[in-house]
Fold this protein.
Amino acid sequence: MAEEKPDLAWRIIGGLLGLVTAWAARKILGFVWVKATGREAPLDSESDEVGMGEAIGYAVLMGVGMSVAQIVVNKTAKKRYVAWKALKSPEQ
């Protein structure tokens, strides 16, 4: 069975949610990094001032944190969008 193509409204909503989620997750994870380490986030991992462990730790935190945030937001939003769409359209 072919997978149904997402409608335009969901593609727009999903794209905007992706942008907002990425921005918010980056801010929150940066704040968590500063609180946990007492240092600013190592944005330039190739800098001589950033150690290997610190660069890898930050990359792991950002990778896992961003992925988890995207999954949670996308699944929740899709579930709510489908429920809303079901209420809007009459049953067939």
User: Anything to note?
Assistant: DSSP finds two helices and no strands in the chain. The CA atoms of residues 10 and 81 lie 8 Å apart.
